[in-house]
Amino acid sequence: MSDVREIINPSTEEAIAEVKALSALETEAAITRSAAAFASWRKVAPGTRAALLRAFAANVLSHNEELAQLEVRNSGHTIGNARWEANNVADVINYYSGSVERLSGRQIPVPGGIDITFKEPVGVVGIIVPWNFPMPIASWGFAPALAAGCTVVLKPAEITPLTAMRIAELAHEVGIPQDVFAVLTGSGRVVGETMVTDPRVKKIVFTGSTEVGVHIQTIAAAQVKPVTLELGGKSANVVLADADLDKAAASAPYSVFDNAGQDCCARSRLLVQESVYDAFMERFEDAVRGVRVEDPRLDSAEMGPLISSSHRKSVESFVDESMVLFRGSCPTGPGYWYPPTVVEVVDPNHRILKEEIFGPVVAVQTFRDEAQAIEMANDSDYGLSGSIWTSNLGRGIRVARGIEAGNLSVNSHSSVRYWTPFGGYKKSGLGRELGPDATDAFCEVKNVFINTEI
Ligand code: NAD
After folding, report:
1. Is 159 near ligand 1, meaning CB less than 6 Å away?
2. I need a labelling partner for 164 at 20 to 30 A (CA). Which of 109, 177, 312, 320 fits?
3. Model confidence over 195-205: pLDDT tens digits?
4. The pTM is what?
5. 158 in ligand 1 pocket by Cβ < 6 Å?
């Protein structure tokens, strides 16, 4: 028997749906069906598979507004962001539909014969995603997996399953079989862990906290099961003295307060060169006070609420331990609102500089010179993202090369473009998603030697 979970709108605190929480037995049954479906999906002609994926992308695109409105209700994302996210899903599926017909092995000259490599789909892939970006993160896993010829069981976060469930229906509507792409709702401990331990699931893509990622890697290791891990972050936004301060200050709020700071790439540490500290902070304060935190259904909204009451308590606990320099405003409630907040921290070992806050809070520090900026940016267990602001391109690249992180941008707060690889150094993850090679993570390479001298 399945349990059900109530789904809450974080802007209103009202229940909006009830969703099944599957049992371990139901999860195993879904994996059985997925493994059976793999036998035929892998044999679907590449042109047909590509056409199905293109039809799926078109169906997502034509339901952009419906998906976006659903995400606003389930996750509190601003409508502008949610439309971008639904659009990103369609783009990513389209992009990997183009990989289907390009998946190929190699012929390697060897003495005494011919050597051929084949790329073969691994089988059933388990994709486990967090609550902060339910739509795009799911698609970064399922689109290349389906393109490679794998079947997918996707587990959304317990509290934000609605858009994933609808996206799967949109796939089924265009002819992708239900057991080729199945969404399994329920808890991490039951559904997620069953996916990781079941030997018929051949690969796990996990996006979430470092703590759960380490646990998943440990249990997957017992079966030598490959995992891709996209984990937490504590990224730095480095403002050098020669930066265009107007542009750097205007961009800085969006590098950390976007999605109410619930973003693995949030630049939650702001490092400003001493000589321009006052000039930068004056501009930054204006920008922070101008962030529109309001009903996420409004086109003008730039930031919505936090995901839950318990998450807001966690964010508050960090701020309670530090000195607030200034903050923006937010509605009083109902809803799990929290204002954009800028804090100053003197102790370099304070937990606000070490741990992921996952809320609209940024800690400011100063540095003397380029070398110290790199040292401070690297003073973290994480290495996911970061920005460098400078008018000297050579310096921008030099600092980017010095920072131990997977996704850096110079004079920009952008982190993700689906054409380019995405993933973290250190405790931010293992492996890469997106970019032209993502399908490789869902293939085994088989090598066959043919003796030509027989
Ligand atoms: P979480 O680790 O609590 O949960 C993530 C997913 O794992 C959920 O679906 C959850 O149900 C599932 N899960 C929990 N325990 C499990 C278990 N024992 N076995 C299998 N599955 C289990 O993370 P969250 O709170 O949902 O998301 C926030 C975290 O995600 C942050 O740390 C954030 O940085 C990270 N994140 C990383 C990226 C990235 O690309 N690097 C992107 C988004 C979010």
Report:
1. no
2. 312
3. 999 999 999 99
4. 0.97
5. yes
Q: Is 81 in the pocket of ligand 1 (CB under 6 A)?
A: no
Q: Is the CB of 271 under 6 A from ligand 1?
A: no
Mutate which of 139, 207, 315, 417 for ligand 1 pocket (most atoms within 8 A of beta carbon): 207
Q: How far is the CA of 271 from the centre of ligand 1 (A)?
A: 27
Q: What pLDDT does residue 333 have?
A: 85
Give the chain's mean pLDDT: 97
CA of 188 to the centre of ligand 1 (A): 9
**Residue 441 CA to ligand 1 centre (angstroms):** 20
* pLDDT on residue 2: 64
Q: What is the pLDDT of residue 1?
A: 53
423 in ligand 1 pocket by Cβ < 6 Å? no
212 alpha carbon – ligand 1 mean position (Å) = 7
Q: Which domains does the chain have, with CATH numbers?
A: 3-231+428-451 (3.40.605.10), 236-417 (3.40.309.10)
Residue 278 — pLDDT band, cuts 50, 70, 90? very high
For residue 205 and ligand 1, the question of a CB distance below 6 A is answered with: no
Q: Which atom of ligand 1 is nearest to the CA of 233?
A: 34
Catalytic residue among 26, 85, 158, 264: 264
65 is catalytic: no
Asked whether the beta carbons of 357 and 311 are under 8 A apart, the reply is: no
